[in-house]
Amino acid sequence: MELKPGLSAFVTGAASGIGRALALALAQKGIFVTVVDYSEDRGKEVALLAQNENLKFHSGLKFPSTIFVKCDVSNKGQVAAAFDKHMQVYGGLDICINSAGIVTPILFAKDQTDGSNSWRHAVNVNLLGVIACTHRAIQIMEAAKKPGVIINLGSAAGLYPHIADPIYSASKGGVVMFTRALALYKKKGIRANVLCPEFIRTEMGELVDSRFIERMGGYVSMENLIKGAFELITDESKAGSCLWITNRRGFEYWPTPTEEAKYLVVPSRLKKRLTSVINSNVKIPQSFEKVIVRTLSHNFRSATSIVRAPLKLPIKPGHVLFKVIYAGVNASDVNFSSGSYFSGSKEEIRSRLPFDAGFEAVGLIAAVSDGVKNLKVGTPAAIMTFGGYAEFVMVPSKHILPVARPDPEVVAMLTSGLTASISLEKAAQMESGKTVLVTAAAGGTGQFAVQLAKLAGNKVVATCGGKDKAILLKDLGVDRVIDYKEESIKNVLKKEFPKGVDIVYESVGGDMFDVCLNALAVYGRMVIIGMISQYQGEHGWKPRNYTGLCEKLLAKSQTVAGFFLVQYAHLWQQHLGNLVHLFSLGKLKVAVDPKSFVGVQSVADAVEYLHSGKSVGKVVVCIDPSFSQQTAKL
């Protein structure tokens, strides 16, 4: 939602502290504000200040640009009356911020009362008041059938225990879980998010021991809190999100996808919705076309040819016949066609010729051998074995990866998505609160790396070449996009990140490797997932010398780690499930290059297109257009 004049906002707890700051910040954008608070004098003062801010945008109005409503949010009747007053004046509700909150006046262990004026009251205000206001706001937004945003104020004390006030911690923890559970309202255009700052210098924040504040890195600035709130309002992808703000770690979305994957499962009813009924009567022809490597060369077109092969039946024991619908294109296809991935001498590698090309595909199981009990004909699946550039391929059943649908987005999640997901976890040992640099970030794997790094709570820097790629990366949430066609990557890194970056996800090689290594911070980790700039030289892949590499790494306790996906096959199904889950929740976007490549005869064109540097997102070949035209997206 764009913050623009004429929208209306309902803000509780707006007479002081965080609520006051947010009410005034909204008014500075020309937004009509209803100031809601129990304190009448202070509330009216804030309303007057907000009205003065609104004068910059509005004049000659027949209604006040800001109003004050006295309200105890723990009183259901007063909450309803406050919302009714807002609707009478503004006729609609775009933003609801529930900021009202209190601490308990008596230490819990020493409280001898029934809690009605202490811990029970705190729960009523902090949790039940938020629930009541959220409930009413959703009712109004649903009735209007217009998009709306709700921001509930949680607290870092709702993410980890605040031993000085367990009731405050419990109530704020309830706000966090309550708000996150509202994610599905996004389908109705209503997005509820929760903001969890650490201590801010307010009347409530100043009650905390200053020594503890120092150990936590000092007070979080009100400017950062407002920035976080506005991010949750304007970012359409944020629904059920929890933004944790600290001085120690910056902005971090909680929990990270890795933590979330430990407990979240897709309900069976949702799985049914994700999986369309697919016709299991796959026609099996007598022969099929496939791409084979007939001579070793980094020039994929000259190394390969298309042949028609007989479809040999019956199927081998323990195997399935796999019908390919979409095949994924990878930079390393040229390494495969040159024999670089096989061990042995050139003569030994040539003795293997011809061999089938292509690393990955999605499609349907066309037939199974008698010994295969766990797979059925018509089951959507993915494969990551040699031979993906074919209409059919015989695959050992153990290599089948069941998926919800055989769509191009799933192809992108295979080699490209799994490389990003597994390498960032295992090789980069990625944590939150770091600065992550991704090279060639608008490509098949780079798009996943930037999003996963961002979802984990990191600042992300990305390189690309071209305006279209830069636009994609900004849409994916990258904090700093460096378009090397417009500015020097080396100069930007040196000027804007003088202390270096913590993690580098590197796939370009050559001179880019040198730039990234020099930009690596103390304790930094660089993960090498490829060297696309070196793959298609006149004489093939020529290794480079990196003089002084050991000395550089030693001086700053740095790590350079290689990553080859084949050696992590035991993690494929787990990480693919995580990626599909994030995609189904709308937390992960998958960009597939719009250029159309149809049939096995277009494979060489697709490989050359990828290496031209023009592609944006994952390059995919549609092997069977007749099937793709009748299917819905994942």
What would you note in describing this structure?
The longest helix has 26 residues, at 119-144. The protein has 21 helices and 23 strands. It is elongated. Residues 269-280 and 629-634 have low confidence and may be disordered. The strands form four sheets. An eight-stranded mixed beta sheet has the order 3-2-1-4-5-6-7-8, sandwiched between helices. α4 (119-144) links the parallel β4 and β5 (148-153). The chain has three domains: 8-254, 3-Layer(aba) Sandwich (Rossmann fold); 287-411 and 618-628, Medium-chain alcohol dehydrogenases, catalytic domain (Quinone Oxidoreductase, Chain A, domain 1); 428-562, 3-Layer(aba) Sandwich (Rossmann fold). The chain is α/β, with parallel strands linked by helices. α1 (17-27) runs parallel beside α2 (40-54), α1 (17-27) crosses α7 (222-234) and α13 (408-426) crosses α14.
